[in-house]
Task: structure prediction
Amino acid sequence: GSISGKVTDDAGQPIPGATVFIKGTSKNATADAEGKFTITGITPGNIVVVARIMGYETFEMPVNAGNSTESITFQLKADTKGLNEIVVVGYGTQKKSDLTGAIAVVSSKDFNKGPISSADQLITGKVPGVQITSNGGAPGAGSTIRVRGGASLNATNDPLIIIDGVPVDNNNISGASNALALINPNDIESFNVLKDASATAIYGSRASNGVIIITTKKGRLGDQLHVSFSSTNAISKVTSFSPVLNASQFSDVVKQNGTAAQIALLGTDNTDWQKQIYQSAFSTDNNLALSGSWKKLPYRISVGYLNQDGILKTSNLERNSASINLSPSLFDDHLKINMNVKGSIADYRFADQGAINAAIAYDPTKPLRSGNSNDFGGYYEWLYNGKLYDLATKNPAAMLEQKMDKSQVKRSIGNIQFDYKFHFLPELRANLNLGYDYQKGDGNTNIPKYAALSYYNGTGGSYKHYSQEMKNKLFDFYLNYVKELKGIKSRIDVMGGYSYQDFITATPGYPTLDESGDTTTAAGNYSEAQHTLVSFFGRLNYTFNDKYLLTFTMRRDGTSRFRQHWGNFPSVAFAWKLKDEPFLKNTKTLSDLKLRLGYGVTGQENIGVGKEYAALSRYTYGDANSSYQLGDVFYKTLRAAGYDQNIKWEQTATYNVAVDYGFLDNKITGSVDFYYKKTTDLLADVTAPTGTNLTNTLYTNIGSLENRGVEFIINATPVETKDFRWDAGFNITYNKNKILSLSKAQTDTSVGIATGGISGGTGNTIQINTAGNQINSFYVYKQIYDKAGNPIEGVYEDTNGDGVVDADDKYRYKSSNPVVYLNFNSSFNYKKWTLGFSMRSNIGNYIYNNQASNNGSYKTFQNSNYLANLSTSVLKTKFRNTQYWSDYYVENGSFLRMDYLNLGYDFGRVISKKVGLRANFNVQNVFVITKYSGQDPEVFSGIDDKFYPRPRVYSLGVNLDF
Amino acid sequence: CTKDLDRTPITEATSASVYKDFSNYKAILAKLYGGFSVTGQVGPTGSPDISGIDEGTSSYIRGYYQMQELPTDEAVIGWNDGTLQDFHQMDWTPDDNFINAMFARLFYQIAQCNEFIRQTSDDKLSSNGIAEKDRETAHTFRAEARFLRALSYYHAMDLFGSVPFVTDSNEVAYYYPNQISRTDLFSYIERELLAIEGEMAEARANEYGRADKACVWGLLAKLYLNAEVYTGTARYTDAVTYSAKVINSGYTLANSYANMFKADNNVTSESELMLTANFDGARTQTYGGTTYLIHAAVGGSMNAAEFGVNSGWGGLRTTSAFVALFSDITGATDKRAMFYTAGQNREIADLGTFTDGYAITKWSNKTSKNTDGSNSTFVDTDFPLMRLAEMHLTYAEAVLRGGTGGSTNQAVTYINDLRQRAYGNTSGNITAAQLNLRFILDERGRELYWEGHRRTDLIRYGLFTGAAYVWPFKGGVAAGAAVGDFRTVYPIPTTARVANPNLKQNDGY
Result:
């Protein structure tokens, strides 16, 4: 006999692509575009027909099959609890309900909406325990991603990012602002964020900072050609300026505090330099995707075009991208092939971000243009003795206009994955994945002769080419055996595999030329470095009675970075589905309860590009500009480089205790995770004992640090009626890090390692890493205030009470790391309308207002032969000299920000019901509430300086489906 | 494919391979000499030798100049970089990053020398298959590396007193070296110099830029002249002996004083410059060294182009105490008086204002023929680490201080040699009656100012600290004030003490 029917959702809308199968057999079918399916050749009898698709609850329907055609209709409920969601874990997938580790999934329906140029922005504010801080508002600027704080000090704290099975190199290539910006966000189907060690340990060596698995969209078997087009057009606007004196305030300050010579330098204009460098910028993002199935070959092809102007004048990103996915199944589905090729060509024009500080510091009494079009392209510049005064601030508008810094970056990521289910032993699968990630960046930085920026370079002008190439290849193979052992109520799932990955980075050297083509700086040396990882890994999942779940993973990783190549990274986790126990089974209110316990050890070896051979005694060639004359000959020198031959893996042990819960038929779901991470043999760039090595600081294993935290998630659907639905999600993460030790000595009483370079002077720092304190604590003097609450210049507390105020009185004050971060999303659906927003808050993050400290004293304007503008902070402090290390400038940067607000309307099928049309209006960066006195409190480093401001973006988008 | 984990550098060499090819030895030796000039393997900045400080500031000569000249009557600086003002105000602390960087730079140089010395032992030369004919050259290279190490240890002893002690017998590893006392370090440097004397090239027989026997004698003479400061035991007779050896070694005074500090000093003044840190606008680029000295000294109404550079950095000037060493500051009589006074105030009201204090025009990127150096940002001017004039002054002082084997008359002659060059005639000559210790200190100021000698000289005369001699802003006050005697040595940087618990701090810090 046969079975045919239809799969629909609650509202009766067809669900194309749903899989329908007869339980216990390999007979199956996929619902077509109208939700219809047919399965033939069914042996009569009592059977169970199952319909399932991601995002809906799987439905089982018992049928008494006869010889004729049975007709059934599945009406699937949207899967609010997501328990049957398939989660991508390392080297395989798992049902969400069977997870033992801390894994968060964000799929495309939950992505942030709006003009998104970099993939990381899709999930900003969506995942608890994950802090995504955009690196400013430049087109294509990426984000700094931290999963549960950073596990490292100087080794990378970035999570491992895997795109369709290929761990990508997220080191930035020359000419790109961010590696993830080279992938079209519209091609992404889901993000799976692996947070605790039991989830990440399968990626062993690179997993200490979490793993983000990105899966791209695929075509579906049996689908007809489906065309979708989307276009988003946006206007970006500057939201705020750094507070500086206007022309009349500045004149007053100079007249009151300056010498006669300085007063004489004042001009008569009134220029708001910050308004000269920013603009309202337009961007457009257009995507076309074709997907479907050609005979038995599912395919998806997409192209995208992004053109984004930055709010800092002249900055622009233009990106063309294309991707192809083919996912055929052969031999009765025994062999599944999944092939992806993605490519993009991004053309950047970088604005000189030095213009941001120059605009703050430029004398507002000076005009934009000098009126003399012969010099400096007509722009006003500071002169002295009739010639350019090179030490003075350069005209910020000219810096933008005259510096042409353009690059083109090509990137392609691809893989082909073969998944073969053995004919003779269907429980056993073999999986082979071959992948690559290729990037090449080429750029030119050109400054003409007349520009003040390179006026004195040889005969004037500066012309420089740069390029870099990165090649990364991957070979993965694993075997997976899954067996239900009904007799002992057990299920085992064993996997074991091998992985090889190789990275090559090549950077040629190019000379700098002047306008006449003469070399002013000779070409640097060509450099190339290679880095290889070899791994063996395995996992055992054991389930007893469908209630008790045990996961054990092991990875043995080898790296070429260290002479001691190998490290072992085990993990174990246990989960207990309490809800399924008899004593809770009948509780109506409580709909889900699961306990998870996990422990694992992960590693880190990535100390950065250029440190591939940190364990070897090497000699570095000097370039032509650093050669040395002996006799009449200039020799290119050879330098013995510093190294630590015993350098080895950094290790992070993570403990995770969690409860997943659901109430009221899972209208309310969520989880609470407690974690503790301790990193030992920390890879840190520290001062070597003087004289012992061939440089003064080097990477070695030293000390330890910890992170402890709690994540709490609650998702709810408070209202759900036929026409109206309200979903709300809230999560909060508390994370506190502490450096436990930074020394090989038994007692660690060291002052610490200075970090956090600031503008002002040469080589000044504001932060410190010290044992017993938070990472990146500010290291400052305690300001003393007068009765009116104003800071008294240069008067600080004698914190150690020794009677004198000196460097020993600096204290460790707060840190740039937030202690608590919260995310709040909500969406409202009313008939065809949707309204959604997402908000984010960081609490306890402090920020050093470098704009105010560096420009906030009367000394600032008093330079030889030119004037510089001041921060309005000077009006309050009345400081005569800069006071870089006053804690007055360390401000509470806690904030509440609404990242996205969007309103959508679904027109349904229009134009003879052939085209689906949706339109949406979005606002990005809607508002920020903060006490911080500067431009934007959210700067990852905690030092507000030269920060490219985040714009507010208004966009209008349409989606068409054919 | 686990053997792929044994990756070796692609565009760098390894110590295993580099010493098998003798042509590399000169390139490594060039790095050892270049350690005084360049700051990394990419000029002017990039691939720095040491980190934790701005690369230009990490330059050996720049750091040495700052520590030897800024705390004295000879120099003040206008910038507000970090703790830079602490030098002249003489209130530096162990946390000072400039001091820390110089400490690191000294031991960077020592460690590079140690590595080369280790790799060029007879055993290594033969195991690396170096041909017999090249061994002799290798021995000379090795002796020069030992000289350079001794020179840096001398600087370390002079600046810091008791310092960590590492030699070629220590391997590159993570360990805590012991601190050597100043007295023991003095003996070590003396032993080393005497041991290599015979292996060095004859005086004036080596290439320009490389050390010879006269350099060994010259360093010994400096060591002995200051021996009482370093060890408590005077060695003036030895100072007389070795300064005389240099004076009679074949080096001769250059004709023109001013030309010794110009872009082509390697050509015009080779006969006097015993050892130089070499710079070249096109090929040896750095923001330290003489590029710093020339740019930083130009400001106010000075025209940078007259110094062969494109801009002044408006930093370095001098105090009225130094100006007072010259009775005629115009340079019309003593041509060593090279001041720029237009628009400059003789007295300093504010250290941060360039026009307070006379500027000094001694260093220039113009050639002796008044043409520009090869590049207007990076200069060609070489910095003398040792020159013959210093030996004339050393001889005279050692004789006056009781050293035997020389004579006062000879001392007067040597001093007058310098004064005749300075005056262009004998009008500035002195008599034996005029020769006294204070005169020599002042003459050293006039002859050697801004070449990195002043702090050591003032300490030897007991005038660096205390109240016996004050100059503007000594001790941080405009009139000058007494400073504690512990400041005759710099503190061991906190950073170094954190990394090595064996290091004890100098008294007073």
